[in-house]
Amino acid sequence: MAEKNLRAGLIGLGMMGRHHARNLHALEGVDLVAVADAQGDPHGAAQGLDVLPSAEALIEAGIDYAVIAVPTAFHKDVALTFAEAGVHCLVEKPLAFDIGEAEEIAGAFEDKGLVGAVGYIERYNPALQEMRKRLADGQLGDIYQIVTRRQGGFPARIADVGVVKDLATHDLDLTAWVAQSDFAQVAATSTARSGRSDEDMVSVTGRLADGTITNHLVNWLSPFKERVTVVTGEKGALIADTVSADLTYHANGENPTNIWENMASFRGVSEGDMVRYALHRTEPLALEHQAFRNALRGDASNIVTMREGLNTVRAVEAVLESARTSRTVMLGA
Which residues does the UniProt record annotate as the domain Gfo/Idh/MocA-like oxidoreductase N-terminal (predicted)? Predict the structure, then answer.
């Protein structure tokens, strides 16, 4: 007998919610049966469904799981309402506004035995998915360093947070995931140059628990868009460009570089082949929804767990504390 479709609900029909609605409508094995937003449906995402007023109304519609795309300040109350009703949830990033709220949400879903995930869409970029597979297969050997650059213009939609909580949170999440190691310490410097009270530029130096060193440049002040992750290891480097969804490998060569003697000592390693991989490019948000559907069916191998989301909130708060105090902040035990 064919497996019964999952009944999904969506709360929040704003800029991100409309894209969730589009993907839920198209997701195989899932029926989007109810949507909710107290502010209505400005983008026409409901596609014929009644726009309900609350999380409680979604629960009454008889859903198996919910996607939460309301502003971060409301994540805790909405998520806990679903947890109490036994509804699995995919929560837009970040999991919560602060560590205390994130701990409360993660604990509630774990106590109820529910599937809970956080919507870090960058993880599902084809370039980063392929990078993670190749790192897991040992292509670079030991990982030495991870560098990210996330730069571009200011998004007018952002009014409640600075660049750390809006953008750097992606880099902190994907770095810990790529290396499979949480942050142990961060040192950050930030500035506000656009007239807002929140920071719009940050530079972060970090170290993961496994010893990997990291560096992250994030800002809203660049006249060009850049989304790059560089992982350097003992056998070479992988470079993921998530704007173009390209992945490139630079191998360490087996023969010394042919260069004059006085410069040879500065070369570090010899130069080897460079390969740009041909990738199957699927919309990252579609992959995110597929991964959560698969988790509800028993395969949770490709979701961002709420525990991981909590660890990222901790890293974000550490970055903000470091920038505020001009001190290195330690995380973990």
Answer: 7-120
- The domain in which residue 50 lies consists of 6-122+286-302
pLDDT tens per residue across span 24-48: 999 999 999 999 999 999 989 988 8
- Residues contacting residue 197 through CB under 8 Å, at least 6 positions apart: none
Contact 135, 304 (CB under 8 A): no
Q: What's the pTM?
A: 0.91
d(CA 199, CA 319): 12
CATH of the domain at 317: 3.30.360.10
Are 162 and 77 found together in one domain? Answer: no
pLDDT per residue over 46-57, tens digit each?
888 999 999 999
- Answer whether 247's CB lies under 8 Å from 131's CB: yes
Q: Residue 305 has what DSSP assignment? A: B
180 & 229 share domain: yes
Going by C-alpha positions, the residue among 245, 303, 237 that lies closest to residue 275 is 237
Q: Which helix (H) or strand (E) holds 219?
A: strand 213-219
Q: Do 36 and 58 contact (CB within 8 A), yes or no?
A: yes
Q: Tell whether 191 and 65 lie within a shared domain.
A: no
CATH, residue 71? 3.40.50.720
Q: Are residues 141 and 57 in the same domain?
A: no
Q: For 196-221, how does the pLDDT look when each residue is reduced to its tens digit (9 = 90+)?
A: 889 999 999 999 999 999 999 999 99
What confidence tier does 265 reach under pLDDT thresholds 50, 70, 90?
low
Checking if the pLDDT of 13 tops 90, the result is: yes
Closest by CA position to 9, among listed 71, 73, 53: 53
* Amino acid, res. 100: G
